[in-house]
Write a structure and sequence with these properties.
The protein is globular and about 45 Å long. It has one domain: Creatinase/methionine aminopeptidase superfamily (Creatine Amidinohydrolase). Helix 3 packs antiparallel against helix 4. With about 250 residues, it is α+β, with helices and mostly antiparallel strands.
């Protein structure tokens, strides 16, 4: 577990640029995500934004054979949903848009869960608590702490509100590879795991369900779905470990 890459200042600067491009994509999606839009149309908009920046390409497209720019996961879908021309968002849905940008050989990775039109209050609360799990766990990203410190906060925020973390889907290091060490579980105990050091870059991503947290793989061999068909939510930041804390780059 000592092989967690430490990025150079040049690498960090390049990742900041990639992160800014990815933030532009996710910010734009608040205007795009509406009832009636197809998931393929959302995907094409995201790809166009990324490719408008010289040297930037979609980080997911072609990765391990994935066919699209975005992972679009609706309601009970947890991660890795594939955009389709004939699949349309409906009023009351929640949709996770997970995206990566590859810029100068370095990946950034982030996700937000969006509300489609008006959703039920209990569903809105569920999404807000999942986002809170991300915001709260970031306070543990600082030199001298451990990866388990992050995981414990995610688990505590979710379970104390009656939700379940998805254990099999994890956060991770990110940089020259989309997935680098360490794994950052959505459940754990403080003081465990590798020590956090300046220059590390993490993609931290609480993934939750309103049910039991068990998952299955869909018929397309990509989409991960809750085993009990309960709703799932997902938020993710790419963060740099600084000398005294953290910096969110997307």
């Amino acid at each position: 577990m000592n092989n967690i890459p430490i990025k150079t200042q040049q690498e960090l600067n390049d990742m900041r640029i990639g992160g800014a491009i990815l933030k532009e994509v996710l910010d734009k999606m608040y205007d795009v995500v509406k009832p009636g839009i197809s998931t393929m149309e959302i995907d094409l908009i995201a790809e166009k934004i990324i490719r408008a920046h010289e040297g930037a390409t979609p980080g997911f497209k072609g990765y391990s054979g994935f066919p699209a720019t975005l992972c679009i996961s609706i309601n009970e879908e947890v991660v890795h949903g594939i955009p389709k021309e004939d699949r349309f968002l409906k009023e009351g849905d929640i949709v996770g848009l997970d995206c990566g940008v590859l810029y100068k050989g370095l990946y950034t990775d982030a996700c937000r869960t969006y509300l489609v039109g008006k959703v039920k209050p209990e569903v809105q609360k569920f999404v807000e608590i999942t986002k809170k799990a991300l915001n709260d766990c970031l306070k543990k990203v600082r030199p001298g702490n451990h990866i388990g410190d992050i995981s414990e906060v995610i688990e505590d925020v979710l379970t104390s509100n009656g939700y379940s973390p998805v254990i099999e889907c994890t956060g991770h290091g990110v940089g020259h590879n989309l997935h680098e060490p360490p794994e950052i579980l959505n459940a754990g105990r403080k003081g465990t795991g590798p020590e956090i050091k300046p220059g590390m870059v993490f993609a931290i991503e609480p993934i939750s369900t309103m049910g039991y947290g068990n998952i299955v793989t869909g018929d397309d061999d990509w989409t991960i779905i809750t085993a009990d068909n309960s709703l799932s939510a997902h938020f993710e930041h790419t963060v740099i470990v600084t000398e005294d804390g953290y910096e969110v780059i997307v």
